[in-house]
Amino acid sequence: MKRRDFFNVIAGSSVLWALPAQAKLPSVGFMGNSTAVLEANLVDAFRDGLRELGYEEGRNIVIEYRWAEGDYDRFPELVAELIAAKVDVIVTAGTPAALAVKKATSTVPLVMVAVGDPVGTGLVSNLARPGGNLTGLSSVAPDLEGKRLDILHQIVPKLSRVAVFFNSLNPFHAISIKNAQSAAQHMGITLQPHDIREAEDLDGAFAAIRNDRPDALLILADRVFLHNRKRMMEFAEEQRLPNVNAYKELVEAGGLISYGPSYEDMHKRAAIYVDKILKGANPADLPVEQPAKFTFIINLKVAKTLGLVVPPSLLALADDVIE
Fold first, then answer.
1. Strand runs (DSSP E) across the chain, as ranges?
2. What is the domain-level CATH number for residue 58?
3. Three-state DSSP class for 189?
4. Distance separating alpha carbons of residues 92 and 101, to the nearest angstrom
5. Is residue 132 part of a domain?
6. Are residues 301 and 234 in the same domain?
7. Is the residue at 177 inside a domain?
8. Contacts of 44 (CB under 8 A, 6+ apart)
9. Is residue 114's pLDDT more than 80?
């Protein structure tokens, strides 16, 4: 070997010796209930939260995305994929998804978002010290269904019969239906519940509504409804059916009103939990937050189409009015 080539080899080796082994970037598994398109606003809010804490996707953090496409039966498979990918923490929204993660692992930390009554559904032992590998943000607030029905009643004064879409696969809906029934009884309203576990169940519910002719529709908070919002709101428009929803996305798709916690705000705050866990915090010691920010949206265009007059007092309270 020539002297110059020898020194080139030594120099190259020195460079290699000087390079440290590349550290594994922290990774987050984001398991969405529907699709990337339908949950784009929630993912963007989560990314914004991460950016504010100094994380940039692809540079110093990796996000593994999985999408259930509105099919809760896919949760076990998607959770297994995230565990196999060795993510450091999983983020997911809703009670069914959080329960699927809890069933699958007791070691991978979970930041749950927008879960209803995490204590009552068995996700955590208590809000202050959740225990186990779960923490995050709850969407439960006192009498949400009663408030939604009250808003609807103010816009539709002669309200007497209300169809309700719920999902019996969502453990929290047993509590929500009880709360709705209690509020409805107080207002002299009869509820007509329809169990929607998957998109195919909508056909039967639509047929029943066409036959029963209720005065309005109440849609509980569930990702199956978020995923199928376009189809449901087209039906409500066709039937001239006033409706109150948990998600603003349903109002943006043609619904009348929505009232509930800000899901975007909760997804942004989920980044704070992820940051703490990646820095060594134990999920068991991180208190579960209750919602602090609520959003009230009115679609005035739909109200006018239905011939409804929205009281000025309600308009004054709205965070956004679609005209």
1. 27-32, 62-67, 89-93, 110-115, 134-138, 161-166, 190-195, 216-219, 243-245, 257-261, 294-299, 320-322
2. 3.40.50.2300
3. coil
4. 9
5. yes
6. yes
7. yes
8. none
9. yes
Q: Mean pLDDT of all residues in the chain? A: 91
Helix (H, G, I), strand (E, B) or coil at 206: helix
Both tokens of 196, joined, read 């929607």
Q: Which domain holds residue 317?
A: 144-261+295-322
Cα separation, 263 vs 317, whole angstroms: 19
20, 62, 137, 226, 280 from 46: Cα distances, Å? 32, 13, 13, 18, 20
Q: For the CA atoms of 117, 169, 98, 52, what is the dihedral angle to 10 degrees?
A: -80
DSSP string, 37-54: TTTHHHHHHHHHHHHHTT
Contact 233, 253 (CB under 8 A): yes
Question: Which pLDDT does position 11 carry in this prediction?
Answer: 41
Q: Which tokens is 39 given? A: 């949950």
Question: pLDDT value at position 170?
Answer: 86
* Residues 244 and 234 grouped into a single domain: yes
User: In terms of pLDDT, which residue wins out, 115 or 63?
Assistant: 63
Q: Are 252 and 268 contained in the same domain?
A: no
What is the distance between the alpha carbons of residues 258 and 310, in angstroms, rounded to a whole number?
14
134 lies in the same domain as 254 = no
Closest to 110 in 3D by CA, of 121, 99, 120: 99
Identify whether the C-beta of residue 133 lies closer than 8 Å to the C-beta of residue 284. yes
Taking the model in full, what pTM does it have?
0.79
What are the phi and psi torsion angles at 200 (to 5°)?
A: -65, -25
Angle between helices 95-104 and 75-84 (to 10 degrees): 50
CB contact at 8 A, 230 and 210: no
Q: Is the pLDDT of residue 6 over 80?
A: no
Q: How many residues does the chain have?
A: 323
